[in-house]
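re: the backbone from monday

yeah here it is again, tokenized this time
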């Protein structure tokens, strides 16, 4: 009777505690809003199910064996001379080997199909919109080269249109991630990384850094707005009315200073070479800003092109 009462009490405690433990879990990965995120969700579920093919039988047999060969079961067969079974050996080795082969093939295929540098083709053939993302202490700077505007801790783009993020850092290494849209990419000083995403529906999705970078790391968050084409044009127009300008020598240096809990900021007049200057400022032997950071003939930097992630490999 005491054992039953203990078991009932334990069940009641678990029933009360589990919802509290699970309340902090996010379903962003399991409820994606973009093509890349959806493919990743399928990959996670497929790999999980394949592994359960081994895990579940092991758990069940562990429980059954413990029950069948318990001390109180006098009817359990006692076979002290049993040592080997070819059938069991075949099963316990063949099935895991098949699962490993399937997982290897799946990993190979998805490593190429989900390559973050692989452009995404839009259904209507639209060109991707380019957004340059720079991680700072402790905030995110987003530069729109075609629109000549920039924002801090807020990014917007049209839904159902490919987005090409060019990602770098103006400080230590960080990691750029919008969980509901897909892949995370490291932001590193002097590196020009690429990430291609697309939002399948309109909405506001939280983004953040996922690489610890100091005291203000927990506040390195931003909102990503997937808008209609008209709403995006209106948003760009609103940013363009801010009246603030931003270039490497004017405004950027102050913005790059460590700060936390930074509000959303808009810049309407942005230097076309700002992103390139930020990259070049971390390259050995190069000076950035002013005439040293401006573009030369044919739009190429006077001191060479910044290194990208593919070249670094």
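seq for it, each position gets an aa:
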């Amino acid at each position: 009777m005491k054992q039953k009462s203990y078991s009932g009490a334990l069940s009641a405690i678990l029933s009360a505690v589990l919802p509290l433990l699970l309340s902090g879990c996010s379903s962003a990965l399991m409820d994606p809003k973009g093509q890349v995120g959806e493919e990743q969700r399928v990959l996670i579920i497929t790999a999980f199910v394949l592994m359960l093919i081994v895990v579940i039988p092991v758990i069940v047999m562990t429980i059954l064996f413990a029950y069948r060969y318990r001390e109180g079961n006098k009817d359990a067969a006692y076979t002290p001379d049993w040592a080997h079974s070819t059938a069991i050996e075949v099963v316990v080795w063949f099935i895991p080997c098949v699962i490993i082969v399937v997982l290897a093939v799946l990993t190979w295929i998805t490593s190429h199909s989900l390559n973050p540098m692989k452009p995404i083709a839009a259904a209507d053939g639209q060109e991707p919109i380019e957004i340059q993302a720079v991680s700072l202490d402790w905030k995110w700077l987003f530069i729109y080269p075609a629109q000549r505007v920039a924002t801090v801790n807020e990014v917007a783009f049209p839904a159902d249109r490919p987005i090409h993020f060019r990602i770098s850092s103006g400080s230590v290494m960080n990691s750029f991630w919008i969980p509901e849209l897909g892949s995370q990419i490291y932001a590193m000083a002097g590196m020009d990384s690429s990430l291609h995403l697309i939002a399948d529906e309109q909405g506001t999705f939280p983004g953040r850094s996922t690489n610890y970078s100091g005291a203000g790391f927990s506040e390195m968050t931003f909102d990503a707005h997937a808008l209609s084409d008209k709403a995006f044009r209106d948003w760009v127009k609103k940013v363009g009315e801010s009246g603030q300008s931003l270039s490497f020598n004017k405004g950027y240096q102050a913005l790059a200073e460590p700060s936390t809990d930074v509000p959303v900021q808009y810049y309407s007049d942005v230097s076309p070479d700002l992103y390139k200057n930020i990259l070049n400022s971390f390259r050995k032997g190069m000076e950035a800003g002013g005439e040293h950071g401006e573009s030369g003939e044919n739009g190429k930097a006077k001191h060479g092109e910044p290194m990208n992630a593919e070249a670094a490999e």
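The radius of gyration is 27 Å. The longest strand covers residues 129-136.
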